[in-house]
């Protein structure tokens, strides 16, 4: 089994390829993609004629991911967590009372919690 994963740092998107042999001995590629921090995404399963053909297809996918700005994850949990942390989505705030500037969504939720605590006191 081979697994490769990529993350697009600017778009907060991921792409993953699993190259596996099924119970009948056939080779298959399981492709999955979506947004980081989102439940939305997709999956596709492709049958491959041989192990060599599957490896060639994985390399072609890797080349296409690099061309589109994706960064391959190394497999080391610490490095992956750091890369994912840096890809946090920055979006305009649309709530009343905000100037519409860009804020980190996680920071905004922390600020909201602090404001709620100060209102209770």
Verbal overview:
The protein has 121 residues and is of the alpha+beta class. It has a five-stranded antiparallel sheet with strand order 4-3-2-1-5, with helices on one face. The protein has a two-stranded antiparallel sheet with strand order 6-7. The radius of gyration is 20 Å and the shape is elongated. About 14% of the residues have low confidence.
Which properties best describe this structure?
5-stranded antiparallel sheet; 7 strands; 121 residues; elongated
Secondary structure layout:
Blueprint: E1 2-8, E2 13-21, E3 27-35, E4 41-48, H1 51-67, E5 71-72, H2 77-86, E6 90-92, E7 102-104, H3 105-120
**Global shape:** elongated
Helices and strands, in order, run as: EEEEHEHEEH
Helical proportion, percent range? 25-40%
Strand count: 7
Mean pLDDT: 77
Low-confidence stretches: 89-96, 98-106
Biggest sheet descriptor: 5 strands, antiparallel
Distance between the termini: 56 Å
Structural class: alpha+beta
Tell me the strand order in the biggest sheet.
4-3-2-1-5
Count of helical regions: 3
Rg over alpha carbons: 20 Å
Strand content: 25-35%
């Amino acid at each position: 089994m081979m697994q490769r994963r990529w993350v697009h740092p600017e778009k907060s998107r991921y792409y993953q390829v699993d190259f596996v042999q099924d119970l009948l001995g056939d080779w298959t590629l399981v492709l999955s993609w979506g947004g980081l921090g989102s439940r939305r995404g997709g999956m596709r399963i492709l049958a491959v004629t041989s192990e060599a053909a599957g490896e060639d297809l994985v390399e072609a996918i890797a080349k296409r991911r690099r061309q589109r700005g994706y960064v391959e994850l190394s497999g080391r949990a610490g490095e992956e967590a750091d890369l994912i942390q840096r890809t946090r989505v920055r979006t305009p705030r649309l709530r009343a009372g905000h100037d519409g500037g860009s804020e980190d969504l996680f920071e905004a939720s922390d600020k909201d919690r602090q404001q709620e605590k100060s209102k209770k006191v």
